[in-house]
Q: What sequence folds into this?
C-alpha cells in the first residue's frame, strides 16, 4: 500500500513546509471548529469530488497507474467508512480531516490527490452536490403542497365565506377561490427555484486554483462524472459565485413568506372568535399548564422559521460583499444554506399535512358572511348600474347605509331596500325607486360568488379552469424535477461503479 | 361638464358615508404623508391605469357614453397637468389626490372612475409600470457594463499580474482573465432579472377588489391597453404578490455584490502600496483638508449602496410576512424598490465610466508578479510531473523553498534549482537531480499564463473563446431587453391615442 | 469684504490643484446626487459646526481678526438664507454646496474655514446635531405613549377579557393588566435610547482629519459651543464610530416591534369576529370600492414601517463592515437614520392617538371570556389543591373535561362538577367527591382575576402598584429628556449670539 | 417512590386529555426536531428552574412534603444524569423530554412539577441562565482584547506609519495611536452589553402562564434561588420580551463590526504590497495547492462571522414582529442567540491571539510614510500660518505641488521649498518667499506626529493619557463583570445545596 517514497510529513497540512508551527488553540476553537461542523453537509460530496478528480488524473496520466489504484482503493474505503468519522479541528477543516484519514490508510500516496486542485474546489463540489439534492427535495415538497391546495380548492367551490382585506370582511367568496391565493405564487416560486437550481448545477471541477492548471485537466470528464448539466466556464468565477447563495436563500424566503401568510390565517381561523377551522389534534401541542389548550404549534413554527430565514438573505449578501478571493463568502454558507433548505422542506411537509386534513366549519363560514357587510360592493354596483349613480355617489349611499345598519344591529344580509333608499335621499337629495327585487341579487352569497365571472374570479367555472390549468403546470414541474434528480443520481452511481473498476475491485 | 346628479360629496373619500369624520392629524402626518411621498413613482402609471380602466368601462357599457367623454377628457387633462401637482395628505394617498383633482375639474362625473376597481389595483399598476421601466433601464446599464468589461479583457490578454486569494499572490495571470471574473456573474444576473421582469410584467388589471367583479370587466382589453406581456390570472393573488419585491431586490443585491467586489479591488489597486491603477481625476474627489488626496469616491459609493440595499432584502420579506389582504406588504415597497433599482442603475453607469477608462500600470503589475511567489504551484507541478513526487510532498518541498527564499530575500522569479534541491533533501532525505532547465518554465509569468489551457483558463486562446461567446450572449440579451421595452412603450403611446379618439379630441 | 489675495479658484474643490478635471457626469448623477439629497438633514447642523469652528480658530489666532469678521458675517448670512438653497451636484455634497455659496458671498476669505478640519467632521457634527434632536423628540413621544397606556390601564382594572397565547384563550384577565404588557418594554426602550443618546451626544469637533492637528485647536471650546455633554476623545475613533448607527436603529426597531405587537392585536380586536374594539373613524381609511370598509390603516402603517426598518439594522451593520477610513459607513446613514427616527416618532404619535381614544366593547369581552375555556387552569388548580391530584393528572382530567364540553356545546363557565368528576373517573379510575362549591371559584372571571395576587399579576392591587411605580419612572424619564433637550437648545442659541458679537453685528 | 395515585398517563403530554392523538410525523420531523436541538443550551438551566420551582412549591405548601422529597430526589438525579440524554421528538421539546425522563424515574409524582407554571417559563429561565453566562464570557473576552490593544499601543508610540482614509495615505501617525482606534469603541460595546445584560438578568420566575397564579407563588424566593439581580415584574411582559434578543444581537454585531475593521486592515497589511505585518504561522492556514501561501484565515473567519451575524439582527426582529403570546419570538432565538455569542467570544480570543503577537515591520512602515504624501496637510498648514494664505488657497498650492511631484517621481519627504514656491506662483500669481527651513517641520514624520497635541491626538503625551485612562476604565469593567459572574455562580451552587438538604440527601 506504500509508494516508493514514504515521507513522514506532519499531519497538519503545510507544517514543516511553508508553516513553521501547528495551528494555535484559538484558531482551532473558532474557525476550524466551525469548519468541522460542516461535515454532515460536505463529507459525501467531497468524496465524489475526490473520486472523480483522482480518476481523471489517472486517465490523463498525471497519477501513475500503480499509485492510482492505491489511491482509488483508499478513497473507496473512505467513502464507505467516513459517515461516523470524528472531526478533529487540529487538522483544519473537513477536507483536511479526510486527507488525514486517507494518509493514515494509504500513506503518502494520499498526497497525489491534491495535484491541480485547491481545497476550495473539492469543498465547493461537495456543497453543490448537497444543495442540488436539497433543492430537488424542496421542489418536490413544494409541488406536493401545491397539489394539496388544488385538491382542497376543488372541494370547496361552493363553500361560502367572507373574503377579507385588513382582516375585515371584503366580499363573499368561496373557500376554493380563497385557497388558490396560495397556489399561484408557487408557480413563481418554481420559476425562481429552477433558475437557481440551474446556477447551482454548474460544474466548477477542473478550475485549478484560480485560472486553470498547467496539468492536462479534462473538465468535461469531471462534469460528466459528477452529473452536472453544464460547466461553470470561467475558472475564477467558478470558484466564488457569491450571488448564487443570495439567489437561493431569497427564493426560499419568498416561498416561505407565501406559506406563512396562509399559516397566519389558519391560526386565526382556529380561534374561538373565528371558529372557521378545527386543526387536527395530531398537529397541535398541549400546554403544560392550561388544560384547555390545543395550540397551533405548526403555525408558530412556520412563522418563526420564515422570520429567522429572512435575515439570512442579508447575511449571505454581507458575506459575499468582500474582495474576490476571500473564502468568507462561502464558509458561512456551506452549512447554513443547506440547513435553511432542508428545514423549509420539512416545514412545507408539515403545512401540507394540515392542508390535506383541512376541516372547515362551513356553517360558521356562512354565518359570518351573512353577519357582516361583505355584500356592500354589490349593493353599490346595483345602485350604479340600475339607477345611474356614479360609483362614488353609490359608494357614499351604501357606506351610509352600512353605518346605519351597524347602529341598529341589522346584518348585511338583512339590509332592505327602504334603508338604502333613505340613505340615497340623505346623500343626494333625490329619492330613487329602489325595490326589494333590485337589491336581492346583492344579498345572497351564492349569487354574488357566481357573479364573479371575470377571468381569475370566484365563479365556479372560472375556478375549475384555474384548477385544471394549475394541475397541468404542476405535472410538468414534477416531470422536470424528476428528470433533474435522475440525472444526478445515476451519474453518481456510475461514478462509484467506474471507480471500483479502475481500482480493480470489480 | 356636469352629470345629471352633482352631489357635493366631501373631499375626503368615505367621509359622510362610512366614516363620520375626516382624517386625524396624526394619521395625516404619518401614514398619509408617507403615501404622498410616492407621487414621483406612481403618478404617471396610475394615470395610464385610470385611462385604460375608464376606456374599458365605456366600451363595456358600464359608464354611459356622455359621462365617458367627460371622464376621459378630465383624465387626459390630468395626465398632462399632474407632474407638478402638490400632494395633500388631507385627502389620503396619491390615488386620493388624483381623485380630488379630477373631481375639482369635472365634478361628480369623476366618481364613475371607481366602478369595479379598488385603489390598490390602480396603485399597483402605477407601480408595476414604473418598475418594469426601471428594470429595462437597469438591464441596459448592466449589459453596457458587461460590454465594457469584455472590451477591457480583450485588450489585456498579455498584461501579466498576480492573481490572488485572500489578497495574497496566488498565480501569475493576465488582467484580461482576471477582469472576466466580473463578467460571468452578469449572465446569472440577467437570468434573474429576466425571470423577475416577467413576474413584474403580469397584468393585475380587472381583478375587482379580491375575487372579481359582477361588472362585465374585460381583463384582456386592459392587459393590451397597458402593454403587459401576460395576465396575473388569479384575482386575489394578482393584488398582493409579496414574493415579487423580494425577488427583484435580491436580484439587484446579488448584482451589486458582484460589482462591489471589483470595486473593492480597484480601490486597493489605486493605493500607493499596490499602485496598479491610477483612477481618472474626474472620478475622484478632493479632500477638503488633505491636498494630496484623490479619493476613490465611486468605490465608497458603490460599497455603501450595496451595503445599504442588502438590508432591504430582509425589509421586503418582513413587510410581506403578514396575513394576506394587508397592504403593508406594498406600502413600503412602492417607492423604496424603484429607488433601489434606479440608484443601482446609476451606480452601474458610474462603474462603467471607470472601467471604460481603466488605465492599468502594467509595469508595476509585472514587477509585483515577479517579486512574489505566485509561481510556486508551477514549481510543485514540475517536481511532481518530472520527479514523481506525490503532490503533497512536492508542495512541502516548495513550501520550504519559499520559506527559505523569503528569509534570504530571494523573489519567486529568482528561485534557483539548487534551492529547490536542498529543500527536497531536507523534506524527503533524497536528492533529486533538479536542473535549471527543469524549473525554468515555472518562473516566467508569460509561460505560466500560456500553460493554463484548461477550458475557462487564462491561456490567450481560452480567453478569446470566452470573450467571443460572451459577446454573442450579450447581443442576445440586448435584443431581448429592447423588444420588451418597445412592447411597453408602444402600448402606452397607443393607449393615449385611443383615449384621445374616444374623448373626441382627435 | 475681500482678503488681500483673491485668487479665482475653480468652484469644484481641488480642481486645478490635485484634480485635473471637474467631476464626471456619472459621478454627479449617482454619488453626488445622493449626497445632495441629505441637505434637509445636514444643512442646519453644518452651519452650527462651521460657526463654532470659525469662532474657535479666530479666538486661537489662526484666522486673522479682519478675515474672521468677514467669515463670520458670511456664515451668519448663510445660516439665515440657506433653507431654500438648491443643491447642485456639480459642486459635490452639501458641504461643498455651502462652501460654493459662501465663496460667492465673501470670495476667497471663505477658504479660511477649511483650516484644520476635514469635511467629514463638519458633516458628522451636522448629522449628530440632527440625530440628537430627533432622539429627544422620539423619547418624548415614547413617554407620552407610555403615559397613555398607563391611563388606559388604570381605567380597566375590572374590564374582564380572555388573555391569550397563540391567539387562543389562556386565562381570564383584565384589560388593564393586558395593556401593561406594552408599557413595560418601554422602560427597556428608554434604557437603550438613553445609552444610545449618550453615544450620539459626544463631540467629535477638533479632531483634525484623523489624528489631531498641528494647529492650536481647542476641542473643549468647540464642545461647549455645540452643546455636547462630552467629547469623543480619540480623534480617529471620533470620525467613524460605525457602531452607533447600528445601536440607534436597533433600539428603534426593538421599540417598534413592541408597538407593532399591540397594533396587530388591536386590528384583530376590531374585526367582526372579535368585535372587542371599535376604532375611531378619524383613524380609519375608507375603501375606494367597498362601501362598508373602515380600514384600520394605522395598523398597516405601523406594521409596514416596523417591517421596513428592521432590515436597516442589517444595512447599517453592512455599511460599517469595511476598513476604517472609508466613508461608506456614514454616507448611507446620514439621511436614512434620521428618517427612520422621525417616521417612528410620528408612528408613535399615531398609535398614541388610538390608545387615548380606545373604546373597548366590554360586554363582548366578557361574553368571550365566558364562552371559552380560559378558566381551565383554575379548575385544575382546584383539583390539585383540593383533591391532592398531582398537577399533570389534574391537567389530564380537566383537558378531557374540556374536550367533552366542546363536543356537547357547554361553555367554560357552564362546566359542572359532575362533568369534572366523570372525567376524573375516566382518567384515574377513582371518583373524587367534587361538589359545585369546589369549582365555583374557578368559573367566575372576576374571582379568577382577583386571585392573581403574585407580584406583577392581574389582581387589582397588584395592577395599581405597577401603575404607580410606572408613573413615577415615566416622570423621571421625562425630566431627563427635558434636561438634555434644554442643554442642546440653549448652547446653540448662545453660539449664534456669540457669533453675532464676534462678527460685530450685535 | 410512587405517590398515592399512579395513573399511567400517556407519555405525550396532553394525549388522552385535550388531545385525542399523538404528534404527527411531520410535526416531529420539523418543529419538535428543531426544539430538541436546543438541548445543549437549555438542559442545565431548565434543571435549575425546575429545582427552584419545586422547592418554592414545597415551602409554600402546594406540594405535599412526601411528594416533595420524591420530586426533588428525581430532579437531582436528572440534574446529574441528563448531560447525555438523547432527545426524542416524539415527546415534543426539551421540557417534555425532561418530563418524560422524570416520569420514568419517579412515576406520576413528576406531575407535581407543572403546578402553576407553563413550559415557557421553565424554558425561558433555562435560556436566560445560559445567555447571562455567555454574556459574562463575552465581556471577559472583550476586555482582554481591549487590554491587548492598550498594551500594543503603549509599545508603539514612536512607530511611524501612514494613517489613511479610503486606504490612501492621510497623515503620518504612530501605530500606537492607530491601534487605539479599535479600543475606544469597546467602551461603547461595554455600555451596550451591560445594558443588555441587566435586561437578561431579570427573573421571570413565578409569572404563572400570563397573568399570575391562584397558587401562593413566591416570586422573590425564586429570584433569589436563581441568582437574578432583579425581577421582570409584569407577568405577561416577563414571558415574551421580544426586544431583548434584538438588543443583544445588535450589541454583538456592533462589536464584531469594530473588530472586523481592524481585521480587514491587518489582512491588507500582511500582503506583499503592504508588507507592514507578518502574521504568526500558527494563525495562518496553508493552501492545499499553492505551496507559497500562508493564508490569513482568522481574518476571513472574523469577516465571515460578522457578515453572517449581521443578518440575525433582522431575523430576531422579524420573529418578534408578531402578536404577543406567540412563541415564535423565542423558538428561533433559544439556540441561535447563544451560538452567536459564543462564536463571537471565540472570535475575540482568536483576534486577541493575533494582537498579542503583533509583529509590525516598522522599517517598511516608515519607508511607506516617507514615500507618500501624507505630509501635505502640514505643508498647507505651514503655508497658511506662515504666509497668510487662506486655507483653500494653501490647499490648492500644495495639491498642485503633489501633482507635480508625482509626475516627476519625487516622494512627499523630498518635496523642496522651490517646488512649493513655483506652485504658489502658478496658483496665485504671487511669489511667496518660502525657504527650506519653513517647510522642514512638515516633512519629518516624527515631528509631525509630535505636533498632534490636540486632545485625543497622536502626540505621545496625548497617547499616554488615553492609555492610562483606558486602562482604568477596563479595570472597572472587569470588576463589574466578575461581581456579576460571582452572584450567578454562588446562587446556583447554593440552590443545589439547599435542594439536597430539602431532599434529605445532605
A:
Amino acid at each position: 500500500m506504500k509508494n516508493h517514497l514514504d515521507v513522514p510529513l506532519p499531519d497538519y497540512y503545510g507544517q514543516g513546509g511553508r508553516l513553521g508551527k501547528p495551528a494555535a488553540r484559538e484558531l482551532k476553537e473558532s474557525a476550524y471548529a466551525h469548519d468541522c461542523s460542516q461535515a454532515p453537509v460536505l463529507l459525501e460530496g467531497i468524496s465524489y469530488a475526490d473520486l472523480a478528480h483522482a480518476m481523471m488524473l489517472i486517465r490523463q496520466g498525471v497519477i501513475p497507474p500503480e499509485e492510482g489504484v492505491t489511491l482509488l482503493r483508499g478513497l473507496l474505503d473512505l467513502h464507505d467508512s467516513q459517515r461516523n468519522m470524528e472531526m478533529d479541528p487540529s487538522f483544519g477543516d473537513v477536507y483536511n480531516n479526510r486527507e488525514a484519514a486517507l494518509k493514515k490508510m494509504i500513506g503518502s500516496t494520499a498526497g497525489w490527490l491534491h495535484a491541480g486542485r485547491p481545497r476550495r474546489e473539492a469543498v465547493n463540489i461537495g456543497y453543490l452536490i448537497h444543495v442540488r439534492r436539497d433543492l430537488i427535495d424542496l421542489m418536490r415538497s413544494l409541488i406536493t403542497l401545491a397539489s394539496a391546495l388544488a385538491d382542497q380548492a376543488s372541494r370547496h367551490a361552493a363553500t361560502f365565506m367572507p373574503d377579507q382585506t385588513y382582516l375585515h370582511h371584503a366580499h363573499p367568496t368561496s373557500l376554493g377561490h380563497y385557497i388558490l391565493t396560495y397556489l399561484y405564487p408557487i408557480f413563481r416560486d418554481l420559476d425562481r427555484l429552477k433558475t437557481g437550481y440551474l446556477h447551482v448545477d454548474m460544474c466548477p471541477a477542473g478550475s485549478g486554483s484560480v485560472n486553470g492548471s498547467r496539468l492536462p485537466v479534462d473538465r468535461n470528464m469531471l462534469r460528466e462524472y459528477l452529473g452536472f448539466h453544464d460547466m461553470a466556464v470561467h475558472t475564477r468565477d467558478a470558484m466564488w459565485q457569491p450571488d448564487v447563495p443570495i439567489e437561493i436563500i431569497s427564493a426560499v424566503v419568498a416561498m416561505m413568506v407565501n406559506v406563512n401568510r396562509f399559516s397566519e390565517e389558519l391560526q386565526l381561523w382556529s380561534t374561538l372568535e373565528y371558529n372557521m377551522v378545527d386543526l387536527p389534534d395530531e398537529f397541535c401541542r398541549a400546554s403544560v399548564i392550561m388544560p384547555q389548550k390545543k395550540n397551533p404549534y405548526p403555525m408558530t413554527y412556520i412563522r418563526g422559521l420564515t422570520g429567522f430565514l429572512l435575515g439570512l438573505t442579508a447575511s449571505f449578501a454581507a458575506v459575499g460583499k468582500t474582495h474576490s478571493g476571500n473564502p468568507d463568502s462561502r464558509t458561512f454558507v456551506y452549512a447554513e444554506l443547506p440547513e435553511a433548505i432542508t428545514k423549509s422542506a420539512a416545514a412545507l411537509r408539515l403545512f401540507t399535512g394540515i392542508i390535506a386534513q383541512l376541516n372547515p366549519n362551513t356553517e360558521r363560514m356562512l354565518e359570518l358572511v351573512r353577519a357582516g357587510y361583505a355584500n356592500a360592493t354589490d349593493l353599490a354596483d346595483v345602485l350604479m348600474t340600475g339607477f345611474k349613480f356614479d360609483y362614488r355617489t353609490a359608494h357614499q349611499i351604501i357606506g351610509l347605509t352600512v353605518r346605519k345598519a351597524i347602529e341598529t344591529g341589522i346584518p348585511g344580509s338583512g339590509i332592505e331596500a327602504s334603508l338604502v333608499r333613505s340613505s340615497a335621499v340623505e346623500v343626494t337629495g333625490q329619492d330613487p325607486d329602489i325595490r326589494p327585487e333590485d337589491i336581492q341579487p346583492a344579498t345572497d352569497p351564492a349569487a354574488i360568488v357566481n357573479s364573479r365571472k371575470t377571468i381569475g374570479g370566484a365563479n365556479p367555472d372560472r375556478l375549475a379552469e384555474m384548477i385544471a390549468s394549475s394541475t397541468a403546470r404542476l405535472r410538468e414541474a414534477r416531470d422536470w424535477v424528476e428528470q433533474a434528480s435522475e440525472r444526478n443520481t445515476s451519474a453518481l452511481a456510475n461514478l462509484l461503479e467506474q471507480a471500483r473498476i479502475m481500482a480493480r475491485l470489480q
DSSP finds 20 helices and four strands in chain C. The domain at 376-442 of chain C is CATH 1.10.40 (Ribonucleotide Reductase Protein R1; domain 1). Chain C has a mean pLDDT of 96.
